[in-house]
């Protein structure tokens, strides 16, 4: 409307000038331009200023959206096309704001769950700095203090040797921590002096374009004890069933033998006695297998030389010795340690690994000696590894489930500890750490 009025005014002015100066057309045109062009520009700016301010405000809200701040909105009083654009922009901001609030609530819920889970969680960035550590991880690794910002090396310097060794070994694994080296919070939950068993799981993934490694440390002692109790109940039922199956026929045969003797019929007595002997031997063998684990005697330590000891093992099973054996003798219960290593070597040979891939290595350490039995099989899943030390737990069809459990009992009776680790290249390594 203003432009129409300006045009009418320009035409009127031109007519007046042309009336007074009929022969000065260029002069009239120049004067008109000098007067009305600035006026036109000023009027155009006046008309465009609100739209330009709107565009600047819209640009600012877009930058706020990029910073995840969706609290800003726009207002446009006119009822035109720009009003539709402003409404659409405000609707977008409302949707983003609702999504942001929902995401924040989910993050708070997830953070609460992660912080209060009994599994210690430690997220480490590419440069080795801790990005996240929940409450359980703080209690286990840093006496309840904050972990974020510390490097993994700094944390490992103040934890137990077994945990440091497990985290530096690579792959998943089981490890034990002496009760005296546990944090106060952990030790207060259990007044016993038994070593505590933990399961370490580690996973690598990309987060925001950067490689991260997640460590999960789960306390298994209480769960293992609960499973052991349930397992022993099952064992008692099995033993009771086996005793009944063996004693009932023996009692019946003994009664038949007594009746035959009373009648002077001795022809069938040898057969009856052989059957009773077979059942008794079977029962003795059955009970002996369970009693050997349940009543492990105190180790009788004696000095042994590693070359002769390992030589006896190689005469029974096919495996490779890695590295040089220590020249210094060790104080061990030869029979028990031989049984423990035979169980581990048999498991390694039955893992699907070739005999050449089954190895045994003895390493001298400051705190004692380390025996490693490794294979190139398929390793253990998290579920199998979590139950590997439970007596009578086995994934084999005809397995007894006593191999690892018995090895653990023997090693702990010697004052040592056992660790299980999946190898990065496939397979499993069982480490036995024995004191000097």
UniProtKB/TrEMBL annotation:
Q: Which domain of life is it from?
A: Bacteria
**Which InterPro entries does the UniProt record give?**
HATPase_C_sf, HATPase_dom, His_kinase_dom, HisK_dim/P_sf, Sig_transdc_His_kin-like_C
Q: What class of enzyme is it?
A: transferase
- Describe the reaction catalysed, as an equation: ATP + protein L-histidine = ADP + protein N-phospho-L-histidine
Q: Which UniProt keywords apply?
A: ATP-binding, Membrane, Nucleotide-binding, Transmembrane, Transmembrane helix
Q: Where is the Histidine kinase domain?
A: 238-436
Which protein are we looking at? histidine kinase
Q: Lineage from the top down?
A: Bacteria, Pseudomonadati, Pseudomonadota, Betaproteobacteria, Burkholderiales
